[in-house]
Amino acid sequence: MATLKLVVGLGNPGPKYHGTRHNIGFDLVDRLVPPGGPIPVSRKFEGLLAEIEIDYRRVLVLKPETFMNLSGRSVGQAVRFYKLDPSDVLVVCDDLNLPVGKIRIRRGGSDGGQKGLRDISAQLGTDQYPRLRIGIGEPPEGQAVDYVLGRFRGPERAQIDDALILASQAVAVWAAQDVHAAMNRFNGPSAL
């Protein structure tokens, strides 16, 4: 029997944050589970939870509504309830250190200053869980907060739309195979 997987998209709840750079994880979840679509979404674990199928595998999708910096509360509840191994949780978030639209998958490691990842690591008691980072570009000096809470403009929007398509494919490979297969396919130079 296939292991249950959980995809977590990080972001901040509410219309004020919709479409911001920091909410790229939510944007990916919305591609996997379109709002108002045929897949039922429930409020559970201080977030929005849905069950989808990827390549005949059951995959849970979660958007924590705890605000980015407290995402671990929601993720920890889901992991404990479903008795998931951290390796079966894929966290999707923005990354200031990657060029706009570049994606990178890792099997675990440092939070790289991303406070949502930091909180998840604290709640899970490990930083060894897969993460899919989507590049949002580097902010101007001293403007990180305004930058991450800003929206993509002009040509960036097209780059992000392409990145979300690629990221959706990476999620599918991770769910159907494993993190190593996703890393091998999507971390190379041709994956830009």
From TrEMBL:
What are its GO cellular component terms?
A: cytoplasm
E.C. numbers: 3.1.1.29
Q: Which UniProt keywords apply?
A: Cytoplasm, Hydrolase, RNA-binding, tRNA-binding
Tell me which residues this entry annotates as catalytic. H22
Q: Which Gene3D superfamilies match?
A: Peptidyl-tRNA hydrolase
InterPro entries of this UniProt entry?
Pept_tRNA_hydro, Pept_tRNA_hydro_CS, Pept_tRNA_hydro_sf
Q: Where does tRNA bind?
A: Y17, F67, N69
**According to its UniProt record, where is this protein located?**
Cytoplasm
Q: What is the name of the protein in this document?
A: Peptidyl-tRNA hydrolase
Xref: CDD domains: PTH (cd00462)
Quaternary structure annotation from Swiss-Prot or TrEMBL: Monomer.
**Organism annotation:** Paludisphaera borealis
List, in alphabetical order, the GO biological process terms annotated in this UniProt record.
protein quality control for misfolded or incompletely synthesized proteins; rescue of stalled ribosome
Please indicate which residues carry the site annotation Discriminates between blocked and unblocked aminoacyl-tRNA. N12
Identify the residue position(s) of the site Stabilizes the basic form of H active site to accept a proton: D94
Q: Name one GO molecular function term.
A: peptidyl-tRNA hydrolase activity
Major subcellular location class: cytoplasm
- Name the job this protein performs: Catalyzes the release of premature peptidyl moieties from peptidyl-tRNA molecules trapped in stalled 50S ribosomal subunits, and thus maintains levels of free tRNAs and 50S ribosomes.
